[in-house]
Amino acid sequence: MLTNNKFRIALVALAATSLMACSSGPSEEEILAEANRQAAVEQAEAEKSRMERETATVARAEAARADEMTRLRAAAEDQKATLVNQNIIYFDFDVSSIKPEFISVLKKHADFLVANPSQTIVIEGHGDQRGTPEYNIALGERRGQSIETYFSNEGVSMSQITVVSYGEEKPAVMGTSEYAMAQNRRGVVVYE
User: Topology relative to the membrane, per the entry (predicted)?
Assistant: First the structure.
């Protein structure tokens, strides 16, 4: 009988343990809540990952734009350096009209100025020493205005251009030879 009793006690203990195990497990609500929490964590992680990818994409795009701007600035500075070395337009004696051989030079300047609207220039008009100082100032002004008109016709904003006449006051070459005087009859495009 003792064995039977022990068997019954063991059976009751087993049943009680089973019931306790069943009742201590998560309920359906707890399982659903845990699933919802896990889904929210996964969604938050996915959103964080998406935001990190977007941030990286924006950073790469900004870096590419910055690189492109640096490249464009360097190209503009190289072009400007070339133009600074090709900035003199020579005129015939007592004439303010532009010679055909200088149109291509002026076109390069005009294209650069149109592409770089913040760039300003001063056009200096000069003359040789023949004539009165007043006449040479007026002639230098007309020469500068001829260049200004060409630029304006090519689309350069007038706000980018200032014309100054020096007449015979700033000769490029001293002397009275025809060569010296020809070098002094000029318009000069000066980048500011």
Answer: Lipid-anchor
Angle at the Cα of 152 from the Cα atoms of 143 and 74, rounded to 5 degrees: 100
Strands 186-191 and 161-167 turn out to be unpaired
| Angle ∠(28,31,36) on CA atoms, nearest 5 | 125
Q: How far apart are CA 150 and CA 155, in angstroms?
A: 9
- From the list 55, 174, 175, 189, the residue with the least C-alpha distance to 123 is 189
Enter the tokens of residue 48: 């964080």
Nearest to 121 by CA among 134, 106, 133, 103: 106
Q: DSSP letter at 124?
A: E
* Contact by Cβ (8 Å): 79, 62: no
Q: What is the mean pLDDT of each run of 10 residues along the chain (192 residues)?
A: 61 56 72 86 90 91 90 88 92 96 96 95 96 96 97 97 96 94 96 92
Question: How far apart are alpha carbons 168 and 128 in whole angstroms?
Answer: 5
Strand order of the β-sheet with 88-90 is: 88-90, 186-191, 121-126, 161-167
